[in-house]
Write a structure and sequence with these properties.
By secondary structure, this protein is an alpha+beta fold. The protein contains four helices and 15 strands. Helix 1 (24-47) runs antiparallel to helix 2 (54-68) and helix 3 (135-153) runs antiparallel to helix 4. It starts with a strand and ends with a strand.
Length: 266
């Protein structure tokens, strides 16, 4: 689940404390939570087709959680009523599953979900097309995956949070897509949203330092138009202000001595 974040303020990294390092035992539990999230993604990807409602997808995700003895970090979060966010077309994030939201050929859906195992959290998202889509929408989907890969590669000891945002923004510029304002990634551990915020823009060498053991949920979020959004009256559903379609992708990533490790990868 995406977190809101403050506007970027350029500042040097000197004096900023590093992103919290998790112990080996803590990372072992976070890997277990990540595997549950990965299984949820796998099940949901296989179920995506025209005619499926987003409520049916939520039910499938609940079955995975129950089967694995995990709990949802989305359900009940500030009153959120489901275990997945299912955001279709111009819905950026936090789309509430509904039996009346039925997927059609040519839609784009972003699914975000998480799991808690023994008090430790995993969080990840993906965006896919339901059937064939236009070249511009395909470019959008490719862009978020490229940006996520670039952000993962930036998760290395000695880098900073600003390096992650810079990696994401560089892909957006190259692909000609917009960056969603005011939403992004976040720290994660014994809570779904922890410090620091991880904006999808940044400058190399700025922001909090990354160290071995740091874990972040990184979440590129792009649109085919502008980056401004509005929230519907339900208090959750976030849409693009200009009606342009959006997509996002997310993984929970740890820094190890050997480089980044994606905890939520299937």
């Amino acid at each position: 689940m995406s977190s809101t974040r403050p506007r970027i303020v350029a500042r040097r990294s000197g004096g900023l404390r590093p992103v919290t390092a998790r112990t080996a035992d803590e990372l072992r539990v976070m890997r277990r939570a990540g595997r549950v999230v990965a299984e949820m993604h796998e099940v949901l990807r296989h179920a995506l087709r025209p005619g499926v409602s987003t409520a049916a997808l939520d039910a499938l995700a609940r079955e995975v959680l129950a089967r694995r003895g995990a709990t949802s970090n989305f359900l009940g979060y500030y009153g959120y009523p489901a275990v997945i966010c299912a955001s279709v077309n111009d819905v950026v994030v936090h789309g509430i599953p509904s039996p009346t939201v039925v997927l059609a050929e040519g839609d784009v859906i972003s699914i975000d979900c998480g799991a808690v195992v023994d008090g430790w959290h995993g969080d990840a998202a993906f965006s896919v097309a339901v059937g064939g889509v236009s070249e511009s929408v395909e470019r959008l989907l490719v862009a978020v995956e490229e940006a996520l890969a670039a952000a993962v590669a930036a998760m290395r000891e000695g880098n900073h949070v600003g390096d992650i945002g810079c990696a994401v923004a560089s892909v957006a510029a190259r692909r000609g897509v917009g960056i969603v304002e005011d939403y992004g990634g976040h720290g994660i551990g014994q809570a779904m949203h922890e410090e620091p915020s991880v904006p999808n823009e940044g400058r190399p060498g700025q922001g909090r330092p990354l160290v071995v053991g740091s874990v972040l949920a990184i979440e590129p979020m792009f649109t085919l138009g502008g980056g401004t959004t509005f929230t519907e009256s339900d208090g959750w559903t976030v849409r693009t202000s200009d009606g342009s379609w959006s997509a996002h992708s997310e993984h929970t990533v740890a820094i190890t001595e050997h480089g980044p490790e994606v905890l939520t990868r299937p």
